[in-house]
UniProtKB/TrEMBL annotation:
Organism: Niastella vici
Keyword Glycoprotein applies: no
Transmembrane segment boundaries: 54-74, 86-106, 112-133, 154-172, 184-206, 236-259, 265-287, 299-317, 323-348, 360-385, 405-424
Keyword terms of this UniProt record: Membrane, Transmembrane, Transmembrane helix
Protein name: MFS transporter
Pfam families for this protein: MFS_1
Superkingdom of the source species: Bacteria
GO molecular function: transmembrane transporter activity
N-terminal signal peptide: none
InterPro entries in the record: MFS, MFS_trans_sf, Sugar_transport-like
Amino acid sequence: MKLLPSDQLTNAQVKTGLHLILKDGLATETMNTLTAGTFLTAIALYMGASNVQIGILAALPTLTNIFQLVSVWLVQRFNNRRAITVTGAICARIPLLVIGTLPLLFSNSASVSALIFLLSFQYLFASIAGGSWNSWMRDLIPQQILGSYFSHRSRLMQILNVTLSLCIAMSIDYIKVHYPAHEITAYAVMFIISGVTGMWGVYALARTPEPKSKPINDNIVKLFTKPLTVSNFRKLLVFNSCWIFAFNLVTPFFSVYMMKTLGLPLVYVISLTIVSQVSSITSIKMWGSCSDRYSNKTIIRICAPVYIGCIMAWSVIGVMSSAFMLPLLVVIHMLMGASNAGITLALQNIGLKLAPADEGIVYLVTKNIVTAVFSATAPLVGGLLADFFTSHFVIHLFGRGQWNLFFMAGAVVGVLSMKLLRAVQENGELDKKLLVAELQHLFKRRVRNWHHLPVLRRWFYLRTAVAFKKGRFLHLDELIQFKGWKEKP
């Protein structure tokens, strides 16, 4: 298979590429669901990981983003983003297969240090692939459906995440109770399945067409200093870095807090994660539409305070009985899922909008690297703070004062970061009140329609059924028609 870019893509090629990127997204989501997030935390806790080691595992995906510099150098040298992405993705899947194979061959090889070592290579090559992938997608996806397409893709990925997470969590809890000696074997099989599925996603990427980009001839140092000289883009970097620091300071430890301190079973933790994912699924389409019609900055101004409020709400969880604690956790996860979906989509889209077409990869990689420093530092700082508070403070504010102080610290950093958003300028920015009024109208309309059972059946089908027709997603065809992206003769 020749991985060469094309001088110009037809609309049929673009449409085929959009379908293949959806398939790669589903494969990547399967891989990440099995070997990241709550499951990775559960695996690390099973191996006896400390809070600092949990922080290191949470920091690795963003800490290795600095290697996107290598991606830019490769694009500059070869001007073939598809080949770079596919090669990097293959190298990123191999460590997952190694991690899954070692415990099956050597029963005493399961250690946190080995897990961190091998995952560091996985994230390193994934970062190299991700840098060229971002630039590739910017040129491949039509601008008029950019927000809606990524929200559609995210929704499908989250539906898969919800289904797979619940099945795996129930299976792991069953194995813990009935076959505790085989728990490590179950984790090893998860890594093997993850690696194999990831390779299928690489095959889809290899078939995705790539429009040829203009060669980058400038000195690499000058390339990465140029985005920093653009005032508006620099302000976006400052806000994004501060927000991602506040987000990653406490978010990786929600699962640790629920499993170790509150004593919730893994299936409960995964179920709450699913609640968050479902909330994200049902809201992401709305955020995508709002992104195209209003502005990404307006979405952030609405969603970020909601997420900060959720972080503060974690401080009162410990004082409640189980009868009130679980319903509150459900509400918190619903709000976190919806608000984080809007923030993530808005930050991604505003970065794409502010990056010039000719130098898109340079701006996007600069953004990823700068924010990666703060994103990777945050969970490390969070792990140290969590260990410090739990070992030095004996106060019992709201029941579990050590963790409450930790969560409040994250909320304070989030509030401070919001003040930096005002300086960012975005074309088409509208008053936040307009978007709030529309959201209220949509909410009231949906509430009035909830008693119609046929509407509910249709809603469930459209939101949860991933339909294929001749190897293509039906929902994507509907999206393209709805957004008015017409094929050229």
